[in-house]
Each structure stands twice: as structure tokens, then as C-alpha cells.
Amino acid sequence: MLTFLSILAALLVINVLLLVFSVNGAMSNFKKTFRRISENTVIKLPPSTEHSEPKYKKAV
User: Fold this and answer.
1) Which DSSP letter does residue 51 get?
2) Nearest-angstrom CA–CA distance, 8 and 55
3) Which residues, at least 6 apart from 52, have a Cβ–Cβ distance to it below 8 Å?
4) Distance between CA atoms of residues 53 and 41, nearest Å
5) Cα separation, 9 vs 4, whole angstroms
6) What is the pLDDT of residue 52?
7) What is the pLDDT of residue 22?
């Protein structure tokens, strides 16, 4: 019984360590991607006109 609990505790510790490292790696990749997109984004909006809204037909 003691062997089982010690192996279980060791596996839980390893699992927690892997989880912490994977979350830290994912957060750093997310921040890099977000920063890169926001620096390179150029917003181009079409000129607004009064007649640019689509006209819909009445439903039968």
C-alpha cells in the first residue's frame, strides 16, 4: 500500500510540474502572437456612402 501511494504521489507531482511548464509556454506564445499582430495591423475602411447599405426585398 505504501508503495502504491508513493508512486501515486510521484506521478501527481510530475503531472503538476508538466502542467505548469506547458501553461507558461502557451502564455508566452500567446503574448508574442498578440503583440506581433497588433503592431502590424493596418485598418483600411471603405469610404462610407449613403447608398452602401444593401436593400432587402420584402419576405413573402
Assistant:
1) T
2) 66
3) 46
4) 26
5) 9
6) 55
7) 87
What is this structure's pTM?
0.45
Burial class of 25 by CB neighbour count within 10 A (0 to 12, 13 to 18, 19+): exposed
Q: Which segments of 1-60 does DSSP mark as H helices, in order?
A: 2-40
C-alpha grid cell for residue 36? Answer: 506581433
For the chain, percent of residues with pLDDT exceeding 70: 55
Distance CA(35)–CA(41), nearest Å, equals: 10
CA gap 19, 10 in Å, rounded: 14
Per-residue model confidence as pLDDT tens digits over 8-54 = 999 999 999 999 888 887 777 666 655 555 555 666 666 655 555 56
SS3 call for 45: coil
